[in-house]
Hints:
Blueprint: H1 8-14, E1 19-21, E2 24-26, E3 31-36, E4 41-47, H2 51-70, H3 73-102, H4 106-123, E5 131-136, E6 139-147, E7 150-154, H5 160-173, E8 177-181, H6 188-197, E9 206-208, H7 213-221, E10 227-231, H8 234-244, E11 250-254, E12 259-263, H9 269-281, E13 291-297, H10 301-314, H11 333-347, E14 353-356, E15 371-374, H12 381-384, E16 391-397, H13 400-407, E17 412-413, E18 415-419, H14 423-430, E19 437-440, E20 455-456, E21 459-460, H15 465-470, E22 473-480
Parallel strand pairs: 7-8, 7-10, 8-9, 10-11, 12-13, 12-18, 13-16, 15-16, 18-19
Antiparallel strand pairs: 1-2, 3-4, 5-6, 6-22, 11-21, 14-15, 17-20
Helix pairs in contact: 3-4, 3-5, 3-6, 4-5, 9-10
Keywords: Oxidoreductase
Domain Aldehyde dehydrogenase: 32-477
Family: Belongs to the aldehyde dehydrogenase family.
Amino acid sequence: MPATDFRIEEALAQWQPRHLVGGELLAQGAPFGVVDPSSGEVFAECPEAGVEELDCAVSSARVAWHGWKAQPLEKRRAVLHTFAAALEEAAPLIAPLLSREQGKPLSQAEMELKVSGTHIRHLSSLPLEDELLRKDDRGAVVLNWRPLGVVGGISPWNFPVALAMHKVAQALYTGNTLVLKPSPYTPLATLAVAEVAKDIFPAGVLNVLAGGNAFGAGMTAHAGIDKISFTGSVATGKRVMESASATLKRITLELGGNDAAIVLENADLDVTAAALARSAFYNCGQICMAVKRIYAHEAVHDELAVRIAEKARALKVGSAFEEGVEMGPVQNRMQYEKVLSLLDDSKSREGATVLAGGGALDRPGYFIAPTVITGLDDTAPLVAEEQFGPVIPIVRVRNAEEAVERANAGNLGLGGSIWGRDGARCAELARQLDCGTAWINRHGVNDSDVPFGGMKESGYGREHGVMGLHSYMELQAINAIPPGN
Length: 485
């Protein structure tokens, strides 16, 4: 495991990235480079699993499934809680790897690891019980939820550990076994977590393998995998859905979002500006449910924009290991270039005004200054598309009705929020938003007991809550006919 003094080069020299397959740590596969987004340079190598390793992992998971699903729910919960505690304890050791490969500040990396433990514990404490549908003179009907089998989990690069651990908790708690693939941009911390898990779960219950797009495609098409849980882009999600259809795999897709925040004329600007700035710039804006565009009533637009710009300029941007840093770089070059392209287009539009930031920082790596821009309309790609970076457009609107109509335009519908002092009015508007989660005077809160997912092209199905757990299970209706009928 990595060294506790956070000297990353020494840590890497002591720790060898390996896949977890059937309870064994394996280093098979040609190495591929892992880039430090703070420098743009390769800093480590990771083995890439192939068809043989995938087949072995699926086979091991299938064998392990029979024993794991037979365990009482309380036993599976206890094992997951043991894992959660071990992950929390290992957080300071793994955090440097996570920071180095993802780019987020060290304190935020450690927080991600510790919060992962919390979510595992919460998700594996939710009730899973049969439901009595009816009991009358026709007989009793009981709804029985049973595990699907082998789940394939594919996790993204923005919160590599946290989003992977959501899949671990839900898949294993419900009695399935799991084959997990982290993003090739950020495989190291997840493999380190797998090393922590090795001696906690029975062999084959949890398998973790690093691989690229071809490996992911192999998972979605594999006949031995019964469900795919994918978190990532809309374009890739569509390919996952197409590939999984050949074997009628169950799927859950948590995809992109272009979340709109609607700020009413009576909003508390102190609270609103602070919360929206945090949502827009935390993790360098690389959060699926972060606020991506703000529709502000014309009565408060200018003041709100000034306040958010002040928050943006005050952020300390730098590499993960710089003291006091609050925001790191964009995670990879492709996303970095996309965000800069959207920003360049926006700055060229008539009426556009940059109030903070405005471009890349003059230093190595994929750093973009936290940017606030006004004067755009919905024809600007920065407003109409998901930027997934530290750039926030603030758009002037005349009234709430206009804001809701514009927020609902487009093909995405993950989240949205309403900001104002009239709770009843805010709730009424929230119900009009075409999104999976509508917040009131908050944005981006994701509780383990609340189902989460998107409308339109932002997703398919739900994660979290009992509803999310049931998506990892198959429903069986047990129909008991009374004797003599």
